[in-house]
Fold:
Amino acid sequence: MRKFLEVRTFRFIALACLILLALALPPVAYSQGCSLCYTQAASASARLIRALKSGIFVLVLPPLCLLGIFARLTYLRRNYFGSSLSADDSAIDPARNH
Structure:
């Protein structure tokens, strides 16, 4: 029982450290913006801003489509493995004879 509590305590501490790390990272991520890109986008015309937004959309669309396809295939095949026993496996577990 003591080992279980030690493992549980370790997992709690590890989770707390990960949460604190995740909360500390956003300022670092936001500081990676290129000041030249920011000033160019800020001083751009409406036409250039529309082009920039459509370019971002074009770059985001393929990964989102691939993610959707992967999620759909994963959902459809969630019960594919281990769903039925073969004839050899029924000898191991006689309660599941068909």
